[in-house]
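Before the break, one more example. Copy the sequence into your notebook; we will annotate it together after we see the structure.
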Amino acid sequence: MSDMLFKASHLKKSFGETEVLKDITVEVAQGEVVSILGPSGSGKSTFLRCATLLETMDGGSLEYEGKYAVRDEGGKAVYASGDELRKIRQSFGLVFQNFNLFPHYTALKNIMLSPVLTQKRNEEEVRKEAMVLLEKVGLSDKADAYPGQLSGGQKQRVAIARALAMNPKIIFFDEPTSALDPELTAGILRVLKDLAKEKMTMVIVTHEIQFAHDISDRVVFMADGNIIEQGRPQDVIDHPANQRTRDFLNLLTE
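Here is what the structure looks like once it is written out:
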């Protein structure tokens, strides 16, 4: 795949004696939406944290746009230099399940902060783009509101706008709706569907099976630190080949 944006190969991660990720290989091409499904404790969030350099891998390699963030050298994960990692970090965005906004900054300032500070971009230009992004996520009237004045769904939409403000090539979402009630969830899923229509490359850890089915080019099912199966949603969700996948989906659709 020449348009491959992201590749994790044979990723391994343990916490103490517990192997959380055993041998995870995932590739994501430009414009692709990949959903990661699986029971709690299957390693989905740890995979995302390793992929976004928040957690150190024990083994395997990690590439963004053909550049190695982590190389596998004799079974050990060897990280690129600080400068190289800083460049690579510009390639991706991450949206957390609990928003992680700065409480003492307005919605607008939360969105502007990173482009101005880390990308050293012109403040006025960033402000204009941030206002466009607020409109895109349906919050143009909330630019001056502080996180404490926003609902959970609104905070999550600000967090999505903040990730988009860095113009990343790929955005990772860690259960973006798990902290929200169903009504607010629908709003966030609409925003993600719009991004998918615009061909934004996304990796989404989610429990929303129908949403994953509708939006994804590919679905990855994880359990016990392994990828059990992956493929088109019509295959993995509608006709799972593996009993473990079937059991999981049956539980959720009962």
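The longest strand covers residues 4-15. The mean pLDDT is 93. Try to locate both features in your own notes.
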